[in-house]
Predict the structure.
Amino acid sequence: MLHYFKLPLCFLFFSMPLLCVIADDDLSSIVIVTGDYPPAIDESASDKGYVSRLVVDAFALENIKVEFIFVPWARGLRMIRLGKEACVMYYAKTPDRAKSFTFSEPLFEEEWLFFHLKTTPVKWQKLIDLSPYIFGATLSYSYSEEFHKLADKQALNVHWVARDKQNWQMLMAGRIDIFPSVKSGWHQLRQLYSEAAIKQVTTHPKPLKTQLNYLLFSKQHPDAAYFRKKFNQGFAKLKKLRPISYYIPDSEGKSWPVAVD
């Protein structure tokens, strides 16, 4: 965002070339808002996680530096929706989000699995089959359109909290029956519990969904369209330089995803 309006009025009349330099400098870096989601996005890691590294490398090919701000997921979405910063990462594309955000080219694809204790047998073909169970869910995540509709109608019993850690704790304590998460949920569990404790947990072989993930850019931020264009340009270069397996675990032999409208 440009900051020349903060300068004294007398300075504006005599320093137009300097103002242009300030504007250019402002567009040489971007603040990206995100939540902590190790190992993909890891506030404690030197590279901030493998998705963060992908994003940094793509912007670097367009000579743009990246700074990450870590906040709870729901707060991050709200900040970008209001235009406080230009970009939040990473999320699936939904009709509701399309009202407030534009989307980058798709970064990668991942499956959402149902985590549960082995002592809680889970069988399902349709989501409504899971109505007897208590779900834990994290605010601002998009699990699936059907999941949210059933939760809104209270056809599914869903307990919403702000952070994944709370859901893992409730799952291990038996306060919820099922927690939907991606495969990296196993990493999060290992950060919290011993291997002996984790042996109590399993996942259902039928995934909730498979989704493409994107950077979201604010429709209210004046520089968001510029940064979206620059990211997509850098990402296109990156995909020609490196395979997806360079960044995303368990993706050997896979191709970079393509956009789906």
About this structure: The domain at 110-210 is CATH 3.40.190.10 (D-Maltodextrin-Binding Protein; domain 2). The mean pLDDT is 90. The chain has two domains: 4-108+212-246, 110-210.
